[in-house]
Write a structure and sequence with these properties.
single chain, 12 strands, alpha+beta, six-stranded mixed β-sheet, disordered N terminus, globular, 272 residues
Length: 272
Amino acid sequence: MKRLMAAALIIFAAAPAFAQCSDADKKALEAFDHAWGDATSRGDRAAMATFFADEYQGFVATGTQGKAAAIEAAARAAEQNRANPADAPRPEYGSYTFSCTPNTATMTHRTTVTARVNGKDQVFYNRSVHFLEKRNGRWQAVANAGGALDDAGVLAYMEREWNDAALKHDRAWFERNYAFDASDISSRTGAIMTKAQAVASAGTDKTELQSLDLSDLNIRVEGNTAVVTGVNHEVGRDAQGKAFDRRVRFTDTYIKRDGRWQVWATQGTTIP
């Protein structure tokens, strides 16, 4: 496999040390967001009201939206979706980042929405930023902003998710995001793998990663193809237990099929 890495992109940069969230904070905030999204999808006015602070402001295309307006808009959308379930959007939330103080938090994530358009599923990507405060021991949203991601933004998120999948040996990510005719050239052996071989390797690779860092990311998009280049600093132990500390320059080529970007080819070269 070309590389095992974790992104350090500017748009995903970690918060300073004083603003780090504990693992418990992160789990609680992510659970809050999923419950908020679930209540919104159901159009449950009573449940939604518990997630918003009274002075909530949402920044939308037409301006700002207060608590009552946000709840009403979500409820109306849910009613329309129930009337046309086949065309209802199906959102998925992921790629979370957090920064915290004892009583405030900023949370960002990507939302992937699959929707039926002209009888065919299409995928749309958005990025959201939520500003939260803890009141009476529970989180509430005080402000929210977001917007659609362009292709470069989608690919930047995919690189980050690729890193997470490599860290977790997540075969499902490779199965879902590699094109059927993908090729994967190893930076370690130079061997070329098919999609099936890359998916299998993701689950059986015995490499133990200690730290990962991505730099020099560059994204170029032309129509339905894109090229992403960068450098990865990988520290860990190989399958034989031998320590390594290396930098790998990589090229990832993507293709967009049915409105969704997929890995088409990937290759890495170890920098001496």
